[in-house]
Amino acid sequence: MGLLDAHLVPAVDGVAYGLLLFVVAAGLSLAFGTAGVLNLAHGTLYAIGAYAGAACGDGTWGGLVLGLAAGTAVAGAAGAGLSFAAFPLARRGHLAQALLTFGLALVGGDLLVQVFGADEPPVRVPGALDTSVTLLGHRYPAYRLGFIVMAVLLAAFGSWVLARTRAGAAVRAAADDPRMLAATGVSPRAVHLGVLTAAGALAGGAGVLGAPIIGPGPGTSENVLMLSLVVVVLGGLRSPWATLLAAVAVGEVQTLGVAVAPDLAPYLLFAAMAVALIARPRATEPPGGHDPSPTPAPDPLTWLRTRAKTLPWRRTRAKTPLGTGENAKGWDGVGRGTPASSPGRTGTGASLPERTGGKASLPGVALARRVAVPALVFGALLLLPGVLDAYTVSLAGSALALGLLAVSVTLLTGHAGLPTLGQTAPFAVGAYTTAVLAGAGWTAGPVQVVLAALAAVVFCLVTGPAVVRARSTTVLMITLAVGELASAVAGRLTSVTGGADGLVGFPPTRALWGTAGMVEERDVYTYALVVTALAVAVTLLVLRSPAGRLLAGARGAEARMRASGHPVGRYLLVAYVGAGALAGIGGSLTVTVQQYLSPADVGFEIAAFALLAAVIGGTTSVVGALCGAALIVLTRDWVAGAWPGHGPLLLGVLFVVAVYLLPRGLAGLRRGPNDAAAGGHALLPAPAAPPNDKVPT
């Protein structure tokens, strides 16, 4: 009884906190389970409600009601806008929608800070609730008890709506079989709009009511989003009551767990999330039927290119030695030769010779051309320090480190078909390994790089079996859990990582044994460039080898590969380990370039940036991933320097523009609209489009 009495208040706090998470997670589960949108802006919708409640609350009942109405209405309108923004991407899969919503979250978070300020505003509640009551001999805030009652009533009301009303039947039908719903005359798009509006309203209402419990602030949205994702994974997508139980369990871990076992509580949530995903590998898949091979939606650039080809002065095609019509296409499948679906393009038949001007080129000429272009690019990059200032050279070094992380994401997402949001975990392992080695006096660059890569390989060998057995959205969630666990360790293991303060002051890296430490930005950049070039060269050689073709086959025709006796799981594990080694090298370069390391350098935001860089590049283009990383660093640090305080806004705009205008990435700009190998965002199965609902393009 004494133990229960000592922890009674934290236990009740856990119930209140868990019910708050339930209200938020209910909207997130509704949006993903019905509309198929993995809404990474859901925490921002909560923040909209929290700020509205703080702005309207004046300590009276009228202020509370006004704040609740305003926060719910504004967040519901934002959810409706999100529906209009995400619906054109329905055929592109969950990855494109997740990136879009993350970009919108960055934009919305920046706008909220600009409007309400960076400091946490005070939240006032009515006097009748701004008191405490006696609970089993303890004084407890009356507002939290009132919130518990409201949340339970909301759970009961939501269950009744979903189970007993026509609107609930339409929502369930949209989740289970949208085609059948369309056949009954109900527009799935209208249900899509209503669901995201309701999800936004739930998040906004939770923000208003939860502001006195979790005050509004710049970091609140990300924290609420992460905890809500944990609740959704643990509770599943089917039962509101299962979600409620999962939310209360998460709330208890966050409050009672911190009081009982403060050293373990930060790891328990994401560990439980990972275990649930591994035990139920389809726990995060929307219940509706999915098209296993979605048709990519036309993008604006492809539409413009197609329209340009239909202009009157472009309709007359000149005859070439290859003939006209389909034979007038090239060997690249864009304009002069074999269609993209020919055996030479897919690798299932004999390769076709390269053609230049209608003549087959000699193998030596083709090899020289392949080597000459990278050599010229490498030479140009070597000359950059001579024309740039020291700060820009330092940014270029950071772009190379992030570029290797993006290349590792490209290897997994584009070539292995394992979309990842947790590649910062091996990145962190490599970074902290290098920092610890440098602090111990091991400053030789080759030693740091090799040991960082080996440490990342060991980490991936441990976590890889759980990752490679999953597919689609579940891979995203498992890797996210692994990445957040790694971030929690980085923030808590102060004896090794320095905790939230990070590590700084270790000796500079030496390029080779017997040389002096590199302190000039030019020397550090040259070292990072050489390491990156070697890592990228090895990656390209592997991808163009028979092993790379086996990996491509495992991604494109996994069932046939398994039926042929190929150990697909082993191929994917090797790819996961190789990608981890690349990420570990990128982490090592980050320490060398920055000369400091903090948990923010290995957090969720960096993982999202790496995924965006891979998408900008084309998801299958290694060089494109490097270009995408350079563009992100340029936007985040250089362009944002000219407009201080608006870095998240600029990055959010970059996310949105890249998703809409570059569905095949930079690599797709030089390919035609019919090129099946152009890459793109359709890496996760998309909900099948209903026959009577047109998807806007």
Describe the SSE topology.
Layout: H1 2-6, H2 8-35, H3 42-56, H4 61-86, H5 94-116, E1 132-135, E2 138-141, H6 142-164, H7 166-176, H8 178-183, H9 188-210, H10 220-235, H11 240-260, H12 265-279, E3 290-291, H13 300-309, H14 343-346, E4 355-356, E5 359-360, H15 363-382, H16 390-415, H17 424-439, H18 445-468, H19 472-492, H20 494-497, E6 503-504, H21 521-543, H22 546-556, H23 558-563, H24 568-594, E7 596-597, H25 604-617, H26 622-642, H27 647-661, E8 686-687
Helix pairs in contact: 2-6, 2-9, 2-10, 2-11, 3-4, 3-5, 3-9, 3-10, 4-9, 5-27, 6-7, 10-11, 10-12, 11-12, 12-19, 16-21, 16-24, 16-25, 16-26, 17-18, 17-19, 17-24, 18-19, 18-24, 21-24, 22-24, 25-26, 26-27
InterPro entries: ABC_transp_permease, LivM-like
Membrane topology: Multi-pass membrane protein
Region (Disordered): 319-358
